[in-house]
Amino acid sequence: MTQNKTILRALRGETLPTPPIWMMRQAGRYLPEYKATRAQAGDFLSLCYNPDLAAEVTLQPIRRYGFDAAILFADILLIPQALGADLWFVTGEGPRLSTITTADDFDRLKPVDDIHDTLRPIYETVQILSRELPDETTLIGFAGAPWTVATYMIAGQGTPDQGPAHLLKAENRPVFEGIIHRITEATIEYLSMQIQAGAEVVKIFDSWAGSLAGDDFTEFSIHPMQRITKAIKDRHPGTPVIVFPRGADHKFAGVHQATGADCVAVDDGVDAAWAAEHVQTDGCVQGNLASSHMVTGGQALVDETLRIRESFAKGPHIFNLGHGITPDADPENVQLMIDTVRS
Length: 343
Prior knowledge:
This protein is an alpha/beta fold. The protein contains 16 helices and 9 strands. Strands 1-4-5-6-7-8-9 form a 7-stranded parallel β-sheet. It has a two-stranded antiparallel ribbon with strand order 2-3. Strand 7, helix 13 (272-278) and strand 8 (284-289) form a beta-alpha-beta unit. The model has no long low-confidence stretch (mean pLDDT 97).
C-alpha cells in the first residue's frame, strides 16, 4: 500500500493522470474545527506540544477534504526553542524569541544532542498520525531551513527584509555561520527522528530564501538544504525530500540537482509553464496556485487551477499552493480547488 500512495509515486518521478494534492498550512486558522481545538489547547505552543491535539488538527483537513497527504502540525521555531532560545507568541503579531547576535549568545545554545528532550512530544504526534491516518494518505514531516530559522533567531521575530540576519552575516561572519551550522545539524536530527516515528516524506521550508542574493543564496540556502538532504538520504534510503526555496525566481532552475531533493516546491512568483520547462525537467515539482485564490474563489480559481494542472501535466507534479493558506480563506474555495484538480 505504501508504494502505491499517489504522492510517493509522483516523488519517484511518475507522471499521473490526476496530480495528488495537499496544501501548505492545510491544518490551520481558516478551519472552524482548528479554532475549537486551539481554544481547547489554550495557546499555540501548548497545541504544538500536545501530541493528541496536534494529531487531531493534522487529521482535521484529511477528514474534511481527503487530501492525499497530511503534514505534521508543528512550527519551524521549535528547533531554536529546543536549542535553548526563549520562544513565545504574541496574539495578532506572531512569534518572539530571545536573540542570538553575539558569540556569548551562541555559546549559550544547547548542543544538538540535547534537542530531543524538548521535541519528544513532536515525535509522539508523528507516531499517532502514522497509526491513525487512512492507508492511502502520505504523512509529511517538516522543518524550517537553516537560513529562515536563523533570521528569526537573530532578529527575535519576523522581519520584512531579514535585515538583522543580513547585518550579522556582514559584520560577524563566524557567529552567523555558527548559527547556520548548529541549525543544520539540529534539523538533520529532528527530521531523522520524525522519519523514525513514521513520517514518509520530509519537507524543508526556506521561506526567506528569496532575500539571499548571489553567492549567499547558494551558500546559505542551497548548501544547508543539500547537507540535510544528503544526511537524510544516507540515514533513511528511499525517504523522499521536498525543498522549498521560496522567492528563488529563476534560481528554482537547477535546485533539484544542487540539493539532491526529489521534489522542488515552487511559489506563485514564477509561471507554471516556465517552471515546467526549467524545473520539472529535473524531477517532481510541487505548486503553485496563489493563496489569494482561496480567499476570492470563483471562476478565476477554477481557471488558474486548470491552467497550472495543464502546465505540469507532462511530468511528475504535486498540486499545492504557492505558499501557505491564509486565515481569511474560505473553506468552500478549498473544496472547489480540490474538485477542479480531480475533475
